Amino acid sequence: MKLRWPRTLTLLPALALALGVTTTAPAAADAPTVRSGWNNYSCKPSADHPRPVVLVHGTLGNSVDNWLGLAPYLVARGYCVFSLDYGQLPGVPFFHGLGPVDASAQQLATYVDRVLAATGTSKVDLVGHSQGGMMPRVYMKFHGGAGKVNALVGLAPDNHGTDLNGLTRLLAYFPGAKQYLDKLTPGLSDQIAGSEVLNRLNEGGDTVPGVHYTVIATKYDEVVTPYRTAFLDGPDVRNVVLQDLCSADYSEHVAIGILDRIAFHETANALDPAHATPTTCASR
Fold first, then answer.
1. CA-to-CA distance for 39 and 6, rounded, in angstroms?
2. How far is Cα 129 from Cα 47, in angstroms, rounded to an integer?
3. If DSSP codes are grouped into helix, strand and coil, which group holds residue 53?
4. pLDDT (tens digit, 9 = 90+) per residue, 32-51?
5. Stretch 257-283: mean pLDDT
6. CA distances, 18 to each of 13, 114, 131, 192, 197 (Å)
7. Could you tell me how far CA 203 lies from the centroid of its own chain?
8. SS (H, E, C) 98-158
9. Can you give the pTM of this predicted structure?
10. Cβ-Cβ contacts under 8 Å for 25 (sequence gap 6 or more)
């Protein structure tokens, strides 16, 4: 099926681009499953890193492009690393995370079970960029994931939604725009501040017991706005601003998840806090 965009929906391309488009080229349709040592289902976690790491891409990302920097970084440090595609729409290849967040959370549930079975472990650690840092919370709260996750690291996650610097409020001035957005790209609608999904997710508290949470945000985020809406409140939560670690880091929403080595180092610290080292501008 080919999606046809009504001419009145001039806001939709801007919204789609703003909600997490990657800057790398799309992966080839016949790309191999294993890239730089990740998605290797024969990998067995070591005593030093006893849990597999599952990477959850952002909106308009995919299991390869979003992780060309972080996945090899973690593999080189001895982790078993996996990544999935979720939120696919018919007729839209490569660019995922556009389907309903609840359905995406169920896809994550299925994938985590697959990784646990392959690795013989009982829990995973999750690292997500943008929507990929928020959607796992839906998985843990509503799709049976709470007991299967040790830690969640969010890179610029939209935990409390976004107003895209006020852009989403303009939808009311374009008749039918919100309805078409809901129908054609529900994953985008679900990330707007005040959406039904986000209200349900955050009702009663941001966290679930037993999971360690780390949020790494950037004050230059132009997508998750205001950037502090990424932060979580609750026990066992660490909220970090990238610029507090390195004031010279100007990474924005896309860069923090794709190529920022300072964010990568802080992610590694969150995955192995017992061996954490200070994250500075010189971290690699």
1. 38
2. 27
3. strand
4. 344 448 999 999 999 999 99
5. 97
6. 8, 32, 12, 12, 20
7. 21
8. CCCHHHHHHHHHHHHHHHHHHHCCCCEEEEEECHHHHHHHHHHHHCCCHHHEEEEEEECCC
9. 0.86
10. 65
